[in-house]
Design goal:
By secondary structure, the protein is mainly α. The protein is built from 16 helices and four strands. A hairpin with a 5-residue loop joins strand 1 and strand 2.
């Protein structure tokens, strides 16, 4: 993924809710039809297919392609080309042309110039600028190329409102591949029913502060500081936790993007629309995060999962996709609900994300006391042998998180 993702010839993406109200649709019908029925249709044998496509066998000799294609490579090339850095053809194969374009981007941003070492904060800022620009920023500013990128940077630096939220354009779902009962918002006859289709003042949706903008600002500060906070140089534990939040977010987005490539039978627009509906479905559980203890929140989400009648594997795969899309679109219901579902399905390391959200107040009311429950449980699970899902090769990351948690209290 983004952390230490070995691309060809050495380029590395290195380092560094209230108890749920009545559901808006039957859980089993919605989750089984609208989301899981389509999203978890990705090919199980994808890795084998990739390996097969990367080599051809003649007699007893096997030939392998010299430069493997990657999703992150293609995303980088697309964004670099959009801002005028000319990475060449978008094929996901990172070679000399792409590395040269990365170096031109690094130089213009004031980053250390090394096309073999594309730091995650550099990649993340590039992609956030791209999402912003293609979602209305370019149309609003009437700029293009590098001036457009610099306009985004100035707005992040000054903290002014961005011309457009850095998210993908809203999509409507075409015909579904399976019969679907899509949850519909009730007619706004009363204040209570209207709130089901409008962002809450305190949580969910895209009506609150933008996490994407926040992370863009964090990445700029990281570049100003000369790199990520470490145990040895940590002087601001709150900022260190924010850095780790944004890194975990980027890692979750990259992992989900890889899964999206494997989905069969749905267009990206359909997947995005279904994850929007998934976010609406789990919004009551997200709301409860600011009120309930960790144990209570997990119990409520586990009940929803059990009522759906679907396997934990299907729910987990769906949630990983919708976690990525939720973060990409700044849809906190989809992102937080997916993280909570993953914890409920037996992947406790995702609880770190919930701790970050509760600490900073994105998508939920700020509750630092509850955040500590999620942080502690996530790190304790890692100590007990649970698989690390964020930056697994950074072995000292749990120690950094613990130290920052203690100092930030």
């Amino acid at each position: 993924m983004i952390l230490r993702l070995a691309l060809t010839l050495g380029i590395v993406f290195s380092l560094a809710a209230a108890i749920p109200q009545t559901a808006r649709a039957d859980a089993g019908e919605f989750l089984g039809g609208a989301v899981v029925g389509g999203i978890v249709g990705y090919a199980i044998g994808k890795d084998q297919q990739k390996k097969k496509s990367q080599r051809t066998t003649t007699s007893n000799r096997t030939y392998r392609s010299g430069i493997p294609s990657t999703t992150q490579g293609a995303q980088t090339q697309t964004a670099l080309n959009y801002f005028g850095y000319n990475a060449g053809r978008v094929d996901g194969q990172v070679g000399r042309g792409t590395r040269s374009a990365i170096e031109r981007y690094q130089a213009s941003m004031g980053y250390p110039v090394n096309g073999y070492d594309f730091q995650p904060y550099q990649y993340d800022f590039l992609m956030q600028a791209y999402y912003w620009a293609t979602s209305g920023g370019q149309a609003t500013t009437q700029l293009a190329g590098q001036p457009l990128l610099m306009a985004y940077r100035r707005q992040v630096q000054t903290g002014s409102a961005l011309a457009a939220a850095p998210q993908a354009p809203a999509q409507t779902a075409p015909a579904q591949p399976v019969p679907v009962a899509t949850p519909q918002a009730p007619e706004p006859e009363t204040t209570e029913t209207t709130s089901a289709s409008l962002p809450s003042l305190f949580s969910g949706g895209t009506g609150g502060p933008s996490l994407a903008n926040r992370c863009s600002g964090v990445m700029l500060q990281t570049s100003t500081n000369g790199g990520y906070t470490t145990l040895a140089n940590m002087s601001d534990p709150d900022f260190a936790l924010s850095e780790q939040f944004c890194l975990a977010r980027s890692y979750a987005m990259a992992r989900g993007e890889d899964l999206i490539q494997d989905i069969q039978g749905l267009t990206p627009e359909q997947v995005s629309a279904q994850c929007d509906s998934y976010g609406e479905m789990v919004a009551p559980q997200v709301d409860a995060l600011s009120i309930n203890s960790k144990t209570e929140a997990e119990t409520q989400m586990r009940k929803l999962a059990l009522d759906s009648g679907l396997s934990p594997q299907d729910l987990a795969a769906t949630s990983k996709v919708c976690l990525a899309i939720g973060y990409r679109q700044d849809n906190m219901d989809a992102a937080l609900g997916s993280a909570l579902m993953l914890v409920a399905m037996g992947e406790p390391a995702y609880g770190e994300l919930i701790g970050h959200h509760l600490r900073e107040g994105f998508g939920v009311q700020k509750r630092r006391d509850l955040a500590m429950q999620w942080y502690d449980a996530s790190l304790s699970a890692l100590d007990a042998g649970s698989q690390a899902v964020f930056l697994p090769s950074q072995t000292d990351r749990p120690q950094l998180l613990r130290a920052a948690m203690v100092q930030a209290q």
